[in-house]
Each structure stands twice: as C-alpha cells, then as structure tokens.
Fold Sodium:proton antiporter.
Amino acid sequence: MQQDTPTFSPKRWGWFGLSPLIVFLSVYLLTSICAGDFYKMPITVAFTVASIYAVAITRGIKLEERIRQYSRGASDPNILLMIWIFVLAGAFATGAKSMGAIDATVNLILSLLPSSLLLPGLFIAACFISLSIGTSVGTVIALVPIALGLGESLGLSNAYVAAVVTGGAFFGDNLSFISDTTIAATRTQGCSMKDKFRANIAIVLPAAIIALVLYFVVGLELPAVRPSGEGSFLLTLPYLLVLVAAVAGMNVLGVLTLGIIACGAVGLGTGTLPAWDWIAALGSGITGMGELIIVTLMAGGVLELIRYNGGIDYLLRHLTRGISGKRGAELTIAILVSVANLCTANNTIAILTTGKVSREITKQYGLDPRKTASILDTFSCFVQGLIPYGAQLLLASKLAGVSPMDIVPNLYYPFIMGGCALLSILLRFPRRYSR
C-alpha cells in the first residue's frame, strides 16, 4: 500500500519556504509595472513559473511526491468549492446576458433612480446583500453584471463599477453573522458573534460612510441618462430570484442553479432565448471561466507547498517575537493575519491559521478577545480585497473583462477600512463594548 505524503517537509526551509510567493509577485507585479501594462503578463503564466519553482525547491521527497503534495493543495475542498461556484457563475452570467436580463434590469434601475444615486445605490446594495448572505463572492456574482450595464450607460469604466460592488461586498463579509470569517474569528477567540459585531461595527461603519460619501460626490458629476429601452419585469426575474434566494440564506450553489433554471424558463417562455441558444450560452459561460479555474488550482498548489515547506510556521514564529505592550500585541496580530492572508489568498484560512497564536497573545497581554476577533476579520478582509489572486478580485475581473490590478486602485472601501482598523489599534479604540 502506498504511504500518504507527510504533512510537512522533512527538510523545512524556514523563511525560504515563502520564496514561491515572492517569485509569483515578482513575475506578475514587477514585470507588469516595468512593462507599464498589467495585461502584458498573464496571471496564469506567473503562477506557472511560481508552481515550477515551488516544486523544484521542495526537499526531502521525490519529484513524484512533490507533485502529489502540490496536487493536494489544488484539490483542497475550499479550492474545489470555489471552482464549482465559478462554473455555475459563468453559466448564469452568460445565460442571463443572452436572454436580456441584464439590459432589462439596467433599464429598470435607470427609470427608477437618478444618475447621481446609482453609484451610492450599488454600494449600499452590495453592503446589504453581503451582510444578508455572508459571502462576498456571492455578492460579486449577483451584482457585477448589473453594475457593468449601469457603468456603460454612465460612461464609467468596467474596473470602476466592479470595484464599487466588490468593495461593498467586503462590508458584509466582514460583519455578517453567517459569514465564514465571522464564525472562524469568534470561534478561535472564544467570544460571541454579537460582541464581535459590536467591536467591528465601530471600525467599519465609519469606513463605509466615508466610501458612500465619495461615491455620492462622484455621482453628482455623472450625466443624466435615460433608459435605452423598457425595463421588463419578467426579464429581470432571474436576478430578482437570485437576490431573494441569497438574502433568504440559500447556499450559493443552490442560488446559482436556481438562477440558471430561471434564465432558461424565462428565455424560453418569452421567446428571447431559444433552447439551443440557451444551452450554447451555458457552455460558453462555463468554458469562459477556464482561466480563472486554472489560476485557482495553481494558487492552491503553490500555497500548499509554501505551508508544506514551513513558510507559514516561520511567519508565526518570527512575527510574534519582541511584542511590547497591548498596542504592540494588537499590531502583531494584525500583521500575522495580513501576511497569512497574503500567503493563502483566503481570509477564512488565514484566520484559522493564526487564530490559536492570536488567542495566546490575547491571553498573555490581557487583550479583549472581542477586539482580537475584530482585528482578525477586518485585516484579513482588507488584504483579501487588495490581492489580485484572491477569489473576489479574480471573479470580478473575469466578469468585467479587465485585469485584477485595474480594479485594485478603485477599491475605496477596503483601503479606508484598513486605515480605520489601523487607527483603532494605534489609538486603542473602542476601549469598552456594550454587553
């Protein structure tokens, strides 16, 4: 019987175990910056280089075992869940567009709201939906196609309107009682969700208000736009069903499946989408997610080898040295979860990875566990909102047809949220929470 691959490398690298991440960032970011164009270096090529490098530097096991360990990361249940979401999201988005749901929804919104309120309205909608369903990915899937249609009518870039929705999506992902990040943060720190919510809202609500004001100011300069056609309620039904089902708490895979069926039923019923055209649209949408799926798989493999070679453990050991005082302890926790999220590209996994160490720091330095849980959730969402290889930005960029790096500069809310979170540590507020 073949033995399982060991959990950790028998010859661990220490800090050098992090080098695959450095290679990826160097190939993707530095090359793109030097070329002055983020489309010059495909992210798939950057991850391919990092993958080959990560396998090559792994020591103590044969090449076949290295590849098996890499594949173990790529086949992680969290990675595969994201892939199933991408597959269904591609089918739903393309099917809805083909049967006219996006155009009808955009025209309906334009007939109801003035141009000055469209950007604030999109941001509020993203905040509300993500708060209700607890997932930023689901919010991006539901709203980005509509936002792109509105942005086109207003003369805004796809990257900008995708950033409005993605930023708002992180608001609810950070606060929702059913968000996996909230569950992970509260369980690792041993506090209740409502107490963590109270600690969190004092940090992120001001950030959301500032972002909302910025979008309102931008909206004042937008030209008045009239609908290009009638907003058919029947054609908007697939999106309405998706939003209602998501807010009701249905699993995201179930929501997308419902949306796909609704698109087919409405398209066939109204005659806007013949059966074979609907099937072709579904196939086109699924295959269109191919690059995103490949990137997700390779990212999972690279990040698994980083963990396997001791890169994550090295961070946990060395970033916790030399802590001084409560402020220093909170800053250390913030840095720990931020760097872990940079390495794992998953805010929930980053919280789980650093949760035990953070709880020990909390006990040793007399920190409030509710504040610690808030720091873990807030800083992990902050970093997740800025990395071009995170699921949210990859999906938003795919739907918008732009580079992830084009979206990052327009993400007002994550930047402001990160600033507010840092101030809350430096100024150590709020000091008390209502029970």
In short: DSSP finds 21 helices and no strands in the chain. The chain has a mean pLDDT of 85.
